[in-house]
């Protein structure tokens, strides 16, 4: 017999501060030479932040296109109730956008969320945004991006952590591991991102059924983007894939208008410290085939392990030659 949803939810919320405490306990102190390398607050990191700030002008940020777009592959599943609406807003300080230029010098973007960590420098996003071996020049993170603005500055990227299975299996067979943890450098004045914006708890095993989930995403397609992120409150439940090419169990949420570009956006639930991150738009069919239904991979100990690798500064996984290209 399964436990009541409310009990599962309370236990999950209790886990979050315990796991964060574990990460603080296990996290090593920064190496003595960190100030003299690009990893940390050193001169190289400040130069990278200055370069990113110079490159990402309001015009370039507005012109960027989504890293991934959704493509309908069949008839949508019948809705059981009216789909909750979304609305544009100026965003949250902890939620922002990654920007980079690809091999064709086209600006790209994908969402991300600052999570609490010992070194205050981690953001969680969708792995499918960052998996491609295509060059990612000027890769940076802008918290609370909206209307071409950088209200909390811009942060260069130091390391990207994806699960090795996502590299090996690809976006469909590896859909259960469609999340990434990204380690940021400090901004120009040496401040870490979480020091500036605050962060949300990362919550593994959150349960599937939640009555009030906040979904935030930055919409866009190949022809246009929108100046502000979307916000929606809806409920989630468990979706078991019917596609043998993309197996697994996923969080599913109905929110209107979440087109391509919203990938990496957070699923947020209330916890003791404000919000906890329980998912990111991605997973099943890289987030879904239709704009009114979105998905997330289910956060497990695999997610926590990836987070701890980023906290410790371990070498990230990398693509292997025989890895799937899909």
Describe the structure.
This protein is α+β, with helices and mostly antiparallel strands and 326 residues long. The protein has one domain (44-67, 82-312): Thrombin, subunit H (Beta Barrel), CATH 2.40.10. It has seven helices and 15 strands. The chain has helices spanning 5-26, 43-55, 58-63, 127-130, 164-173, 193-197, 301-312, and strands at residues 65-66, 87-88, 95-101, 107-115, 122-125, 137-143, 155-162, 180-184, 201-202, 210-217, 230-240, 249-254, 266-271, 274-280, 293-297. The N and C termini lie far apart (38 Å).
Strand content: 25-35%
Instruction: Name the CATH superfamily assignment.
Output: Trypsin-like serine proteases
Count of extended strands: 15
What is the chain-wise order of helices and strands? HHHEEEEEHEEHEHEEEEEEEH
| CATH fold-level label | Thrombin, subunit H
Q: Average pLDDT value?
A: 86
Number of domains: 1
Shape: globular
| CATH architecture annotation name | Beta Barrel
Count every helix, treating DSSP H or I runs of 4 or more residues as helices. Answer: 7
Task: Please give the CATH class.
Answer: Mainly Beta
Share of helix, binned = 10-25%
Return residue spans where pLDDT drops below 50 for at least 5 consecutive residues: 1-14, 24-39, 71-76
Using only CA atoms, what is the Rg? 18 Å
- Counting helices, strands and paired strands, the structural category is alpha+beta
Distance between the termini: 38 Å
Q: How does the major sheet shape up?
A: 8 strands, mixed
């Amino acid at each position: 017999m399964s436990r009541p949803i409310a009990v599962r939810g309370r236990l999950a919320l209790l886990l979050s501060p315990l796991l964060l405490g574990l990460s603080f306990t296990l996290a090593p102190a920064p190496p003595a030479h960190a100030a003299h390398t690009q990893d940390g607050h050193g001169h190289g990191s400040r130069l990278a932040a200055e370069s990113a700030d110079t490159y990402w002008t309001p015009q370039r940020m507005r012109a960027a296109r989504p890293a991934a777009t959704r493509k309908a592959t069949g008839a949508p599943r019948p809705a059981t109730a009216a789909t909750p609406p979304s609305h544009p807003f100026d965003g949250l300080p902890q939620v922002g956008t990654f920007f980079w230029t690809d091999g064709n010098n086209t600006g790209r973007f994908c969402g991300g969320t600052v999570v609490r960590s010992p070194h205050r420098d981690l953001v969680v996003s969708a792995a499918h945004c960052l998996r491609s071996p295509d060059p990612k020049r000027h890769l940076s993170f802008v918290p609370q991006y909206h209307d071409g603005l950088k209200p909390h500055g811009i942060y260069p990227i130091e390391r990207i952590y994806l699960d090795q299975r996502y590299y090996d299996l690809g976006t469909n067979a590896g859909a259960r591991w469609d999340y990434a943890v990204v380690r940021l450098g400090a901004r120009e004045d040496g401040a870490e991102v979480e020091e500036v914006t605050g962060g949300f708890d990362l919550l593994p095993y959150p349960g599937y059924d939640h009555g009030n989930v906040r979904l935030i995403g930055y919409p866009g397609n190949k022809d246009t983007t929108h100046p502000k992120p979307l916000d929606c409150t809806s409920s989630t439940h468990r979706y078991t894939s019917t596609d043998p090419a993309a197996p697994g169990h996923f969080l599913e949420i109905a929110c209107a208008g979440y087109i391509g570009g919203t990938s990496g956006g957070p699923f947020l639930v209330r916890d003791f410290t404000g919000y906890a991150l329980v998912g990111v738009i991605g997973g099943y069919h890289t987030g879904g085939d239709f704009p009114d239904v979105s998905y997330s991979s289910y956060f497990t100990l695999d997610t926590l392990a990836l987070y701890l690798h980023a906290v410790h500064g371990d070498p990230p996984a990398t693509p292997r030659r025989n890895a799937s290209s899909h």
